[in-house]
Write a structure and sequence with these properties.
This protein is 76% helix and 0% strand. It has 153 residues and is mostly helical.
C-alpha cells in the first residue's frame, strides 16, 4: 500500500521514515558485515543517508508533531524501500565487496526516486511539490552512486 499524503508535512514524514529505514539497515550492516572490503562504503552511505534525513527534518521544521495520520503514514512508509531488510540485502550479496554494496545502494536509490515520483503523481498541491523535491534530492544521490560505479569500471 502506497502512503497517501495530503500536504508537505505528510510527504516529509514519509521521506523521514524511509531515510530512517535506510540508516537502520546500514547501521546493522556495519555490525554484521563490516569487512575491510565494505567498511568505508558503508560509512559513506550512512553519512549520505543521515544528511538526507537531516535535510528532510529541517524542511519539516516545527510542524513535525506526530498526529494519528502521521503515525499511519510512517508505518506504511517503513516498508516501501529495502523490502526484506538486511537479510534480503545479504542474500543479494550486497555486502560482498564495495562494488556490490554501491550497486545495491544505487538500485535502492533508483527505487526511491520512482516511489517519490509515483507518490507525487497521486497527490496535488504542496504534497506533490514536496514529493518532487524529495525525488530530486534522491536523484542527485543516485547520480553520485552511478558516477562511483562508472569510475569503478
Amino acid at each position: 500500500m502506497n502512503p497517501q499524503a495530503t500536504n508537505a508535512q505528510e510527504a516529509l514524514t514519509i521521506a523521514i521514515q524511509m531515510e530512517k529505514r535506510a540508516i537502520g539497515l546500514y547501521e546493522r550492516a556495519q555490525i554484521l558485515f563490516s569487512t575491510p572490503k565494505v567498511a568505508d562504503a558503508l560509512q559513506w552511505l550512512l553519512e549520505e543517508e543521515r544528511h538526507h534525513l537531516k535535510t528532510f527534518v529541517t524542511m519539516l521544521g516545527d510542524e513535525g508533531a506526530m498526529d494519528e495520520k502521521s503515525l499511519l503514514l510512517s508505518a506504511q512508509a517503513a516498508d516501501v524501500l529495502h523490502p526484506g531488510g538486511l537479510m534480503a540485502a545479504a542474500r543479494e550479496r550486497a555486502f560482498e565487496d564495495e562494488h556490490s554494496l554501491i550497486v545495491y545502494a544505487a538500485r535502492e536509490e533508483e527505487s526511491a526516486v520512482q516511489h517519490y515520483q509515483a507518490f507525487a503523481e497521486a497527490c496535488t498541491g504542496e504534497a506533490r511539490e514536496t514529493f518532487l523535491l524529495i525525488a530530486q534530492e534522491e536523484q542527485e544521490h543516485l547520480h553520485t552512486l552511478n558516477t562511483l560505479l562508472e569510475s569503478d569500471t
